[in-house]
Recover the amino acids of this structure.
C-alpha cells in the first residue's frame, strides 16, 4: 500500500496535473495540419474522391456488389473485413479508475503520506483525523461526478435505428442454389428493414425523407434529394444531392454532391445508394476516433489549483524542517520534536481544501441542475466563472436550426403581402413532400380564407434542371392563374415583365440588373432568396407543362433565414456585462453568419475565413484570434486550432457546439458546452450539457462559477494566512520557551475544530462586485496574502505568550499546560473570527454579513474552544482551566486583532486589489 502511494505521489510530482490522466495530451497536430479534409486522413479523402468519380459498374465491382444488393455469403465476407457498423466511443471509466482520479489531488496525496507517517509513528489519532478528511473529500467528489456521468449516459443512449437495405436471396423457393441472370434474381431480391449496425460495404440502401444516413455512401439514383449536413459542416441550409458524377475535381469530399455521409439526415426526396464504408472507417468514425484519442489538456481550473497547491506545499517544505530543527536543538527530545513537526505539517496544510473544493463545486452542480443543466465534470463549474472568451458554433446553438420566412418583398425591395399570398398558394397546393422552404412559408401565416378563394387546377412539379415549380389555380369566377416559385435566375429567365405600383413594366436590361442587385443585397445579408412570378391563364385550359412557364410577371422575393434563438441576444449581452467576449466559429458562409450575428447583437464585426486561417502561422493566428469575433467557413481543425490559440494567449475558453465538427474544439476548450440534441460524439466531448433551449443559463453558470471560486478562494486565503501565522508563532516560541508552545495532539484538535467550522464556507454569500469580472487562480496573490496577513496573527500570538508568561506565571515546564491552554483558546478563536474579516472586502457585520451557516459554525467553534480547557475533557487533552482575568484579556485581543486586520485590509486592497 505504501509503495503504491509512493509511486502515485512520485508520478504526480512528475506530471503535476491534478484531475487529468497520466498520459500526455496529443495536441491533435495532424488534424490541425489537414483542415481541408476536416480532420480525415489523406488516404480516406482520396478514397472518397475516387469513389465519387468512379463509373457505376467499376464501383460496384470493386465493392463486390450489384444493383440487386448482396447475398448472405457476401454479407458475411464483407463483415469479416469491415466489422459491425458501430462507432467506437470513449471507453467508460471503471469505478476504480474514477475513484483513483477523484483521490489523486496534490493535497489528498500529501495528507495520505502524512497519515501513513502518523500511523507508523504510533499517532493513531492524527491518522484517523487526516484519513477521515481524505475519505470525505474523495467520496463526495466520486458520488457527485458519478451521478452527473450517469445522467449524461442516459442522454446518450441511442434508439435502435434501422435502414432499408436491398438484399437478395441465394436460394430459390425449393432451396436450390441459384445460378440465374440478374432479371431472375431481381424477382427474389427484397428490401429489408435491418438494424443499422448490420450494414456492410456493398449494401444497397434506400433513403427517404426523415432517414438518418447510416453509413458513407455513393448515390446511384436520387430524386429531389436534400440532406441536412449542419452537424457535419455547419451549413444551416439543406444541401442538394445528385447521382451524377461530379464535373470538377472538388478537393473536399464533404462537398461532393454524389456522396452522403453517416450522421447526416434526409430532409426531402428519395435516393438509392451503395455503402462505401461503415463504422470506424466512415468519415464520422474517423473524426470521432481522433476526438476519442485526444486526452484532455489540463483546464485553467486544474492548473490554477495545482499552482496554488504547490505554493502552499513549498511553504510547508521550508517551515516544517525549521520547526523540527529548532525544537530538536532547544528541547533535546528529537522524537517529540518529530511528532510536533508532523503536527505542524498537518496544521500548515489546508487539509479541508479537497473537501471545500468538492463541496463548492457540487453545490454549483446542484444549482445548475435546477436550471436543466447536466454537469459532467465538476471542475467545469469554476471554469465557467473563470471563462473570459466563449466560442460558439452558429447552427443549432445561436440559431433554432430551422428555416423561416424573414421577408416578403416586391421586386423593388418593399414589403409585399401579395408576394406572400402567391407563395402560400404555391406551397399549399403542390403535391408530394414539401421542402423546408414550403414548410416555412406555410408556417409563416395562416391563409385559410385565401385558400378557400382558389381551387387547384394543375401543377408543374419541381426539378433540379429548371429549379422551379408551378401550380395553377382558379378563383370563384373561373379566372386561372399560374404561380411559379424558384431560384431568382431561373424565374427571371421565364419572366417578361415585373409588377410595379403603377402596373406592369417590361423587363429590360436595366430593370433586370436592378432586380438582380436587390436579390444580391438580400444574399449579402445572409438570406436565401426565392423569386415568385405569376401569369393569368387562358380560360378552359386544364393541362399545363414546362412550356407554360413563359411570359411570367415577376412579383417579388421571399427571403429565408435560420432564425436565432430568442435567448441568444440577451445571453450574449449578459455575458458581455460580466466580462465574457463571444466569438462565433462556424462552418457556414460569412454572409449568413454575419446576418445571424447582427441579429443576436454582435454588431461590430471582424470576419475571418477558414481559407485565410489556412495560410497563417501560429504567430499570426495568435494576433488574429484576438482581433476577430466571427470566424466562418471553418473546418473542425480550424475550430480546434482557434480554441487552442486563445488558450495559449492566456484566455480561459469555453466552446459551445452540437455537431461532430465541434467535437475537437469541445475537447480542447477549458469548458465544453453542448446540448441534449447534439450528436453523441459532441456530448461525449462536452463538460456541460444544456437540456433547456434558453442560453441565459450560460450567464447564470458564469455567475455560479464565480461564486464557487470566490468561496474556494476565501477558504484558501483564510486558512493559509492563519496557518502560516500559527507556524510563524511556533518558530518564535520554540526558540525562547523551554517547552512546546502546544502539544501535537492539541495542535491537531485545534486544526480539526477550525476545519470543521470551515465546512460552511461553500454556502456563504459572495459580494456582487466579485461577480462582475472573470476570476483566476493567482498563486502569487495567495502567497502574498499569506505573508501579509499571517504575521498579523503572530503579533497577537506573541502578545499572548508574554501575558501567559508574565501575568499568569506559566513560565516553567510544570505549568506548561496553562500556557498551552491560553494559546489554544486564543489561536482557535482568532482563526474562527478572522473568517468574517477576510471573507469580504467590505466592512464585516455592517456592509457584508456572512450566511447563517457560517455564523452558526463560528459560534459553535467559540463554544468548543472555551469548553475544552474549562470542561471535563480538559485532562484528556492535557489542558487546564483558565483564570477569569484571562477572558478579559481574550476579549481585548480579539477586538484588537479584528480592528488591526480591517485597517490592514483596506491598505492591502488599495495596494494590491482584492480578488
Amino acid at each position: 500500500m505504501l509503495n503504491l502511494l509512493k509511486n502515485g505521489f512520485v508520478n504526480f510530482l512528475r506530471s503535476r496535473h491534478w484531475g487529468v490522466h497520466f498520459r500526455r495530451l496529443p495536441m491533435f497536430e495532424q488534424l490541425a495540419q489537414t483542415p481541408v479534409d476536416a480532420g480525415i486522413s489523406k488516404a480516406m479523402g482520396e478514397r472518397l474522391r475516387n469513389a465519387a468519380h468512379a463509373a457505376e459498374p467499376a464501383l460496384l465491382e470493386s465493392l463486390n456488389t450489384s444493383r440487386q444488393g448482396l447475398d448472405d455469403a457476401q454479407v458475411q465476407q464483407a463483415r469479416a473485413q469491415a466489422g459491425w457498423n458501430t462507432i467506437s466511443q470513449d471507453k467508460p471509466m471503471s469505478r476504480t479508475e474514477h475513484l483513483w482520479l477523484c483521490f489523486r489531488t496534490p493535497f489528498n496525496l500529501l495528507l495520505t503520506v502524512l497519515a501513513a507517517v502518523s500511523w507508523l509513528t504510533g499517532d493513531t489519532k492524527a491518522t484517523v483525523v487526516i484519513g477521515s478528511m481524505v475519505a470525505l473529500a474523495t467520496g463526495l467528489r466520486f458520488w457527485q461526478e458519478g451521478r452527473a456521468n450517469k445522467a449524461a449516459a442516459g442522454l446518450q443512449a441511442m434508439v435502435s435505428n434501422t435502414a432499408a437495405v436491398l438484399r437478395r436471396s441465394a436460394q430459390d423457393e425449393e432451396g436450390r442454389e441459384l445460378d440465374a441472370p440478374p432479371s431472375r434474381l431481381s424477382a427474389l431480391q427484397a428490401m429489408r428493414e435491418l438494424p443499422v449496425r448490420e450494414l456492410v460495404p456493398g449494401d444497397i440502401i434506400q433513403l427517404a425523407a426523415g432517414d438518418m444516413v447510416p453509413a458513407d455512401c455513393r448515390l446511384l439514383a436520387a430524386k429531389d434529394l436534400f440532406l441536412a449536413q449542419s452537424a457535419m459542416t455547419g451549413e444551416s441550409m439543406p444541401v442538394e444531392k445528385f447521382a451524377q458524377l461530379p464535373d470538377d475535381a472538388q478537393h473536399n469530399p464533404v462537398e461532393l454532391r454524389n456522396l452522403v455521409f453517416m450522421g447526416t439526415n434526409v430532409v426531402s426526396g428519395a435516393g438509392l445508394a451503395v455503402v462505401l464504408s461503415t463504422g470506424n472507417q466512415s468519415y464520422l468514425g474517423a473524426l470521432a476516433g481522433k476526438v476519442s484519442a485526444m486526452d484532455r489538456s489540463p483546464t485553467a481550473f486544474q492548473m490554477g489549483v495545482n499552482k496554488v497547491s504547490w505554493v502552499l506545499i513549498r511553504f510547508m517544505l521550508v517551515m516544517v524542517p525549521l520547526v523540527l530543527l529548532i525544537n530538536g536543538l532547544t528541547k533535546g527530545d528529537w522524537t517529540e520534536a518529530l511528532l510536533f513537526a508532523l503536527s505542524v505539517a498537518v496544521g500548515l496544510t489546508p487539509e479541508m481544501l479537497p473537501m471545500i473544493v468538492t463541496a463548492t463545486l457540487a453545490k454549483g452542480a446542484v444549482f445548475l441542475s435546477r436550471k436543466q443543466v447536466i454537469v459532467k465534470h465538476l471542475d467545469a463549474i469554476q471554469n465557467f466563472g473563470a471563462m473570459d472568451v466563449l466560442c460558439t458554433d452558429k447552427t443549432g446553438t445561436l440559431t433554432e436550426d430551422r428555416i423561416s420566412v424573414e421577408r416578403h418583398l416586391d421586386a423593388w425591395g418593399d414589403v409585399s403581402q401579395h408576394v406572400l399570398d402567391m407563395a402560400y398558394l404555391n406551397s399549399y397546393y403542390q403535391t408530394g413532400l414539401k421542402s423546408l422552404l414550403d414548410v416555412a412559408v406555410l408556417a409563416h401565416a395562416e391563409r385559410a380564407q385565401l385558400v378557400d378563394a382558389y381551387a387547384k387546377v394543375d401543377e408543374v412539379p419541381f426539378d433540379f434542371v429548371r429549379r422551379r415549380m408551378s401550380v395553377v389555380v382558379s378563383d370563384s369566377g373561373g379566372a386561372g392563374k399560374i404561380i411559379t416559385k424558384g431560384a431568382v435566375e431561373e424565374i427571371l429567365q421565364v419572366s417578361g415583365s415585373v409588377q410595379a405600383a403603377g402596373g406592369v413594366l417590361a423587363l429590360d436590361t436595366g430593370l433586370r440588373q436592378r432586380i438582380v442587385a436587390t436579390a444580391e443585397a438580400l444574399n449579402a445579408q445572409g438570406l436565401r432568396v426565392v423569386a415568385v412570378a405569376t401569369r393569368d391563364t387562358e380560360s378552359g385550359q386544364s393541362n399545363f407543362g414546362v412550356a407554360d412557364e413563359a411570359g411570367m410577371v415577376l412579383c417579388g422575393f421571399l427571403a429565408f433565414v435560420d432564425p436565432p434563438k430568442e435567448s441568444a441576444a440577451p445571453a450574449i449581452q449578459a455575458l458581455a456585462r460580466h466580462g465574457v467576449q463571444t466569438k462565433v466559429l462556424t462552418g457556414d458562409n460569412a454572409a449568413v453568419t454575419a446576418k445571424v450575428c447582427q441579429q443576436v447583437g454582435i454588431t461590430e464585426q471582424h470576419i475571418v475565413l477558414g481559407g485565410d486561417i489556412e495560410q497563417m502561422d501560429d504567430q499570426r493566428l495568435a494576433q488574429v484570434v484576438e482581433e476577430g469575433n466571427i470566424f466562418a467557413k471553418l473546418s473542425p481543425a480550424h475550430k480546434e486550432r482557434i480554441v487552442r490559440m486563445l488558450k495559449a494567449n492566456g484566455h480561459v475558453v469555453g466552446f459551445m457546439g452540437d455537431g461532430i465538427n465541434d467535437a475537437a474544439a469541445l475537447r480542447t476548450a477549458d469548458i465544453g458546452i453542448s446540448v441534449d440534441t447534439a450528436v453523441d460524439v459532441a456530448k461525449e466531448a462536452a463538460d456541460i450539457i444544456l437540456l433547456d433551449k434558453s442560453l441565459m443559463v450560460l450567464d447564470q453558470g458564469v455567475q455560479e462559477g464565480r461564486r464557487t471560486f470566490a468561496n474556494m478562494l476565501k477558504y484558501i486565503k483564510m486558512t493559509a494566512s492563519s496557518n502560516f501565522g500559527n507556524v510563524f508563532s511556533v518558530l518564535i516560541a520554540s526558540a525562547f520557551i523551554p517547552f512546546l508552545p502546544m502539544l501535537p495532539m492539541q495542535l491537531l484538535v485545534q486544526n480539526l475544530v477550525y476545519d470543521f467550522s470551515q465546512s460552511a464556507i461553500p454556502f456563504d454569500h459572495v459580494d456582487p462586485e466579485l461577480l462582475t469580472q472573470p476570476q483566476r487562480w493567482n498563486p502569487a496573490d495567495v502567497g502574498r496574502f499569506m505573508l501579509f496577513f499571517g504575521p498579523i496573527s503572530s503579533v497577537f500570538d506573541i502578545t499572548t505568550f508574554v501575558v501567559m508568561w508574565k501575568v499568569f506565571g506559566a513560565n516553567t515546564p510544570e505549568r506548561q499546560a496553562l500556557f498551552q491552554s491560553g494559546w489554544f483558546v486564543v489561536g482557535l478563536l482568532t482563526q474562527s473570527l478572522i473568517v468574517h474579516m477576510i471573507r469580504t472586502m467590505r466592512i464585516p457585520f455592517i456592509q457584508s454579513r456572512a450566511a447563517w451557516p457560517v455564523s452558526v459554525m463560528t459560534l459553535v467553534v467559540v463554544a468548543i474552544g472555551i469548553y475544552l480547557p474549562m470542561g471535563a475533557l480538559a485532562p484528556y487533552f492535557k489542558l487546564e482551566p483558565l483564570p477569569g482575568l484571562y477572558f478579559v484579556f481574550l476579549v481585548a485581543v480579539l477586538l484588537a486583532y479584528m480592528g488591526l486586520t480591517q485597517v490592514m485590509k483596506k491598505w492591502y486592497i488599495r495596494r494590491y486589489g482584492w480578488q
Q: What stands out?
A: The CA atoms of residues 102 and 138 lie 6 Å apart.
